[in-house]
Amino acid sequence: MFLQKVMLHLYLLYTFCFMVGLNIILSILHFISPSLAKKIILKWGEKTTMTQNPKFKYEDWGLTIMSFKFMATVTHHMWMSLGQEAFRGEAAPDTPVFTMKGEKTSICKYIKGASSFGDGEFKQLVKDFSDIADFLVVYIAEAHSTDGWAFTNNIDINQHQSLEDRMSAAKILIQEDPLCPVVVDDMSNITAIKYGALPERLYVLHAGKVVYRGTEGPWGYSPPEVRSFLQKMK
Asked: Which pLDDT score is estimated for 31?
């Protein structure tokens, strides 16, 4: 795990420098040529699937990429990611989570054969692979809270100040019928930290170990990649 930790630190350092540079360049370009800046941001949006989300227009999120709150959120996520312990081939951290009834449990109690957690296109994975995998959604800290890096035309949710806040926010997700259990992270964000899950991430756990570790979202959030992995397990 030591080597994996070193690689993680180097990767996060590189990513931080890249994001700072991107933020500065886009801010300058937006002043000189707003149309060119928009073109670059939209290209970036294609990789993060933002341009494919019918709920948001460019005006809702595009300019936020150049904001201080964007960089503050990215920096916070990277800082939290330094505590990752869920590496492929290693034991899956059995972190505490809470059911929607407020009962304390843990991640590994949901593992029977294979397990993964995430959201979005995740629902189709549940439909197609429920015969070989037990799915779980872990609701973690808000990535786009109203009092943080917020998009316009988004759901109005502030950063959770209590477990009740987090459970209340998770109920909005449940309205989308994820077709599998939903639990919420402890207020220490221990699951998000140990799984490097901020802002979103997909994992497959098997026999108490991490067998698939997706890249952190939004760039690396890839249900199709999980689909390919699970197909090999059939």
From this structure: 92
Q: Identify the band that residue 121 occupies on the pLDDT scale cut at 50, 70 and 90.
A: low
What are the backbone dihedrals phi and psi of residue 129, each rounded to the nearest 5 degrees, phi first?
Answer: -130, 20
Average of per-residue pLDDT across 160-188: 91
Say which residues have a Cβ less than 8 Å from residue 220's Cβ, sequence separation at least 6: 201, 214
Q: Which residue has the tokens 């941001």?
A: 41
Return the amino acid letter for 40: I
As a three-state string, the secondary structure of 143-155 is CCCCCCCCCCCCC
Q: For the sheet with 203-206, list strands across it.
A: 134-135, 114-117, 203-206, 209-213
Ordered structural domains, the chain, with CATH? 1-231 (3.40.30.10)
3 state SS of 5: helix
**Does pTM top 0.85 for this prediction?**
yes
Query: Helix 223-233 to helix 122-129 angle, to the nearest 10 degrees?
Result: 10
- Written as one string, the DSSP assignment of 123-139 is HHHHHHHTTT-EE-EEE
